[in-house]
Amino acid sequence: MLIHEGRVKAAFDAGVFVLKLCGDVRLTLCATLDRQAQQLAKTPGLETLIIDLRDATNVDSTALGFLAKVAMAVQGRLAERPTIVADNPDVQRMLEVMGFARYFTMVESPITETCELCDLPEIPTDVAETRRRILEAHRILMRMNEHNREEFQPLVEMLEAQEEGSPHQ
């Protein structure tokens, strides 16, 4: 099986922001997703947010945590909930179990295809920053539902213990 390196693409046109995840999206892209969440919270004229997962072959839990952060960043600013486009039944099931239907409208195909998307550069981070982002992403997922709380509590506790023992505290 061929695994494609993960990429994040984006476009903003006429109030519609499209974030498209492609390939194997893992924690190495969490800084890029985090920056998008922060920028979306401040984007003037934002009316609609669409996250397209149709070309994603895998989305790890850290990346899912930052997708949830993106939705939370625009909560209350948009007339409609953000939309996730996912046509893979495995991805749809994962999003359902993780509680994403509470924050997103889930569809299998977009109403219209978007304009040209630009690749977002991967933002390099060091180990400590990556660990901080993994912890943040999983804390966000734990707030979404009880299943996530039970699933990720051991990981969060382990990362918190590492953070407390880190010389960068």
Structure, described:
Helix 2 links the parallel strand 3 and strand 4. Helix content is 44%, strand content 22%. The protein contains five helices and six strands, in the order E-E-H-E-H-E-H-E-E-H-H. It is globular, with a radius of gyration of 16 Å. By secondary structure, the chain is α/β, with parallel strands linked by helices.
Order of helices and strands: EEHEHEHEEHH
Helix content: 40-55%
Average of the residue pLDDT scores: 89
C-alpha geometry: globular
Offer a few descriptive terms:
single chain; 169 residues; alpha/beta; six-stranded mixed sheet; 44% helix; globular
Quick recap:
Helices cover 44% and strands 22% of the residues. It is an alpha/beta fold.
Topology at a glance:
Elements: E1 7-13, E2 16-25, H1 30-42, E3 48-59, H2 61-74, E4 83-85, H3 89-97, E5 105-107, E6 118-120, H4 127-144, H5 146-165
Parallel strand pairs: 2-3, 3-4, 4-5
Antiparallel strand pairs: 1-2, 1-6
Helix pairs in contact: 1-2, 2-4, 4-5
